[in-house]
Amino acid sequence: MKHLQNLVEEEEATIDMTPMLDVVFIMLIFFIVTASFVKESGIDVNRPDAPTAVKKDRANILIGISDKNEIWINKRQIDVRAVQANVERLHAENPQGSVVIQADRKSTTEFLIKVMDASRAAGVSDVSIAAQE
Prior knowledge:
By secondary structure, the chain is an alpha/beta fold.
């Protein structure tokens, strides 16, 4: 009888780890979902200086224009005729996002205007140009 009583006491002394693992797993999922990832256009751009530059949050669509007038979105070089379709696709994924154009100071204004027009034609009203402070 005494042996049976010791066996029962040993079973009651264990700690159930399942609720703690559930909480840790839920916290991990929460942090993964709420994390914001940095998006890049795919090229390094030498932006012009602007003393009135304002930091822009929630820039979800970044478009880079290199000094050779190459257009980059999501680390892919695209043609100027494909800008509208790419911006429409990215805007459909995140309707609250805005477009930020990172144009090199040696790029031509013609390409900058074409990219801005294509972005507005894609339905994005908030289009900005990146500059150095």
